[in-house]
Write a sequence for this structure.
């Protein structure tokens, strides 16, 4: 652990009171962000999409499962990934499952999308012990239409992506080995949450947030921010059945 200031209880309380003011300002800003998010316009989804699921073909409207709101997390698991989904995205998946019962009772259906074929998603879901509906966007325009994935030529036109492909840091080279894909293919997937609403028979796109926004990070990273020791700058992650120790 890093060296820390050792103080009295009185010093700690004074510092904690000062921090509480900053936390209150942060909470108030977060409230304003949520209010503005809910004021975003809704865009009707006019294209008809057909997705592969473990229960057969389904439309976007079918995925709501009778509720009026659909929350989906796009897991980085492209068709070229030989070893499974992104470890960081897998961490998110681990923590989404327990939330489903509470979301369902608030009129929200939670699912996950990935571009790999459905048989590979189903096998990975069993490996991870997940229960949420895992939907394949393989062979559809959906991930490209909603910027959840890039086509090869699109990736080449984005300088930061091209730079990571051409000169990857060590952690990213390791990540490529974890998923079993060349970076030119692996980095075309875009992890994030996408939200839809259904009203009077029409499906609307209401919100999307993707990496590197902190909101896309696994929940345990927020818990780690409560701890006194900072986390490494390099975004390394492991699947729950592959931790080195």
């Amino acid at each position: 652990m890093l060296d820390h200031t050792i103080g009295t209880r009185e010093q700690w309380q004074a510092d904690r009171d000062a921090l509480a003011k900053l936390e209150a300002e942060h909470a108030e800003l977060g409230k304003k962000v949520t209010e503005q998010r809910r004021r975003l316009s809704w865009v009707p989804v006019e294209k008809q999409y057909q997705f592969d699921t473990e229960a057969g073909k389904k439309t976007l409207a079918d995925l709501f499962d009778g509720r009026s709101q659909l929350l989906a997390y796009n897991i980085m698991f492209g068709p070229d990934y030989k070893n499974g989904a992104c470890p960081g995205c897998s961490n998110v998946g681990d923590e989404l499952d327990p939330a489903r019962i509470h979301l369902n009772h608030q009129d929200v259906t939670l699912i996950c999308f990935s571009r790999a074929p459905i048989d590979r998603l189903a096998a990975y879901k069993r490996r991870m012990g997940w229960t949420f509906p895992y939907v394949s966007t393989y062979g559809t325009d959906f991930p490209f239409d909603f910027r959840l994935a890039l086509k090869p030529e699109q990736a080449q036109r984005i300088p930061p992506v091209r730079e990571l492909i051409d000169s990857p840091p060590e952690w990213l080279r390791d990540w490529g080995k974890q998923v079993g894909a060349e970076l030119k293919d692996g980095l075309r997937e875009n992890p994030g949450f996408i939200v839809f609403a259904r009203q009077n028979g029409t499906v609307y796109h209401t919100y999307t947030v993707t990496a590197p926004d902190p909101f896309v990070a696994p929940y345990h990273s927020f818990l780690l921010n409560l701890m006194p020791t900072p986390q490494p700058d390099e975004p390394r992650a492991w699947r729950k059945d592959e931790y080195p120790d």
Remarks:
- The two ends are 19 Å apart (CA to CA).
